[in-house]
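F.,

This is the one I mentioned.
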């Protein structure tokens, strides 16, 4: 087994994690920091979710660490969560995995006594390194070198590893995007061969990986698309059809719109003409497992794209009434980014009309001025009209509607006295 000089600053590891390692090691159980947090620390990124791997069986972990709150979060797979000074730490017994018949979960797990045996069941070499303050780095699969040279490489035979668990296909692509790594050739070939087996994986787990992929750095997404698009098409069918040329523009637009998943998602969907129609909507919602809120936002963004360009303040206010300020701002950001990236977003805006950035500024002005765009903001209420002698009913509703329209068109100010005067005059015949 290779050993390396320490390359992480031990002070980056939370003191509680070091303490848990000490307690288990002093009780006679080799224990290490492993997985994503170690990978991230070694490559100078902030770490989260500290995972320990240990020779201790779950009951032994419980006995040694009895002073802590311990939760049996994955007992069948040898995992307990220990909460040390408010920090939850997953502690998993070294294990190997039996055969996989469903491409998702091993039929059985066997507890092991060494990290080398445990490393063999992990997905990628960069995720199969271990560290503790006594032994430094343990690296039975060459993950340290891969981490240094920015390579995602499957542990063992990549074909077999993806056949065992198809989710690893997406984890590999997502990690390459998050870390800006390349995928080793054999691993990449196996990813492409195994792409269609993703049908065995739940939409939810696939969608989670896609979400993390789509919000990565646009430059990296651009580089990875030609080789990975067919695989992402297994997660979200329509996206698989996006050509590398189109993706170039899409990712150029991403550079201008930040990293919100729903806002980003709207760009390729608009670009390939996906709408909020029943069929497309059903596919999107099912494959991406969107929450109601997310779907409403996405649907509104797709619908806003089909609105007429608001040529006047009044039309802009109508859009505010329909979509709200926040969503309109997101929409305008998308349109502006698509104009810049595609040389046109497919939206009709004439040369004389202000650019999207200017429109967005006007929108801010409307909001800052507290302009009335909805019935709720109107200073005239049904009660006012009743006081003026109107009876509740259709005519009263009509009068309020007309008042709102007149205020939105800025024919009358949104002030109670002026509105009551206007109503008295206007609605006299309706009382
Ligand atoms: P992140 O937390 O950023 O998603 P991670 O690599 O830490 O990345 P976790 O799901 O937290 O991912 O898993 C912790 C470790 O467990 C991984 O680093 C890897 O060693 C192992 N692992 C996770 N999922 C798999 C898998 N599907 N197949 C094999 N090993 C896995
Ligand atoms: Mg993790």
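My design for it:
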């Amino acid at each position: 087994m290779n050993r390396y000089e320490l390359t992480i600053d031990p002070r980056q590891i939370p003191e509680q994690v070091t303490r848990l390692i000490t307690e288990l090691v002093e009780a006679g159980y080799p224990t290490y920091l492993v997985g994503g947090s170690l990978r991230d620390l070694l490559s100078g990124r902030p770490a989260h979710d500290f995972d320990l791997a240990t020779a201790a069986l779950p009951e032994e972990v419980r006995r040694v660490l009895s002073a802590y709150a311990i939760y049996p979060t994955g007992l069948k797979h040898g995992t307990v969560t220990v909460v040390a000074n408010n920090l939850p730490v997953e502690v998993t017994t070294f294990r190997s995995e039996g055969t996989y018949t469903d491409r998702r979960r091993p039929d059985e797990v066997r507890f092991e006594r060494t990290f080398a045996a445990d490393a063999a069941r992990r997905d990628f070499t960069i995720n199969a390194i271990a560290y503790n303050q006594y032994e430094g780095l343990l690296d039975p699969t060459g993950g340290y070198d891969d981490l240094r040279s920015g390579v995602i490489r499957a542990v063992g035979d990549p074909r077999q590893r993806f056949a065992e668990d198809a989710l690893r296909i997406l984890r590999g692509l997502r990690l390459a995007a998050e870390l800006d790594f390349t995928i080793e050739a054999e691993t990449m070939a196996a990813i492409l061969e195994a792409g269609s087996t993703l049908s065995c994986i739940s939409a939810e787990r696939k969608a989670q990986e896609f979400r993390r992929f789509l919000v990565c750095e646009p430059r990296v997404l651009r580089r990875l698309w030609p080789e990975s698009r067919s695989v992402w098409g297994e997660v979200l069918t329509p996206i698989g059809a996006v050509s590398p040329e189109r993706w170039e523009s899409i990712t150029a637009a991403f550079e201008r719109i930040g990293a919100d998943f729903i806002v980003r998602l709207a760009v390729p969907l608009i670009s390939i003409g996906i709408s909020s129609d029943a069929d497309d909507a059903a596919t999107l919602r099912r494959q991406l497992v969107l929450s109601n809120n997310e779907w409403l936002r996405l649907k509104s963004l797709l619908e806003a794209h089909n609105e007429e360009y608001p040529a006047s303040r009044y039309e802009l206010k109508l859009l505010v009434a329909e979509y709200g300020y926040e969503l309109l701002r997101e929409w305008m950001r998308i349109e502006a980014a698509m104009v810049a990236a595609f040389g046109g977003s497919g939206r009709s805006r004439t040369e004389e009309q202000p650019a999207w950035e200017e429109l967005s500024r006007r929108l801010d002005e409307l909001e800052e001025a507290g302009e009335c765009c909805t019935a709720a903001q109107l200073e005239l209420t049904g009660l006012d009209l009743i006081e003026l002698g109107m009876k509740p009913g259709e005519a009263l509703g009509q009068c309020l509607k007309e008042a709102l329209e007149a205020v939105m068109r800025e024919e009358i100010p949104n002030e109670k006295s002026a509105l009551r005067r206007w109503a008295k005059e206007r609605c006299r015949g309706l009382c």
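The mean pLDDT is 93.

Talk soon.
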